[in-house]
Specification:
The chain has 97 residues and is α+β, with helices and mostly antiparallel strands. It has one domain: GIY-YIG endonuclease. The protein is built from three helices and four strands; from the N terminus they run βαββαβα. The longest helix is centred in the C-terminal third of the chain and has 19 residues. The termini are far apart.
Length: 97
Amino acid sequence: MWSQSFKFDTASVNTNASPNIGVYEVDDMLMETVYYGEGNIRERLLYHLQNREFPKGYWFRFEETNSKQRAVQRQNALLEEYKRRHGKYPMYNERKG
C-alpha cells in the first residue's frame, strides 16, 4: 500500500521516507509520475536528491516490500503499467526502455 505523498526535499525525505526496502515514486508538481525506483527507500531518495537527478521532482511516495526481489518485481510491474497507459516510461526511467 502506498504511503501518502510528501515533498521531495532532503528534510522531508529524512523525516518521512521509510528506511526499509521497497519501491518509490517521484512526481512532478502536478502529481504526474516522473520516476519509479526500488531499494532502500530513504537512502535511494537521498542519493537522487544529492545528485540532482530529477529536476522536475516535487513529491514522493513509497511502498515497503520487505524484500529486494519483491521491490524489483513491483518496480517492473509499475513501469510496465505506466508504459501500457502512456506509451512510454516515466521521464526519468526512459533509459530502461
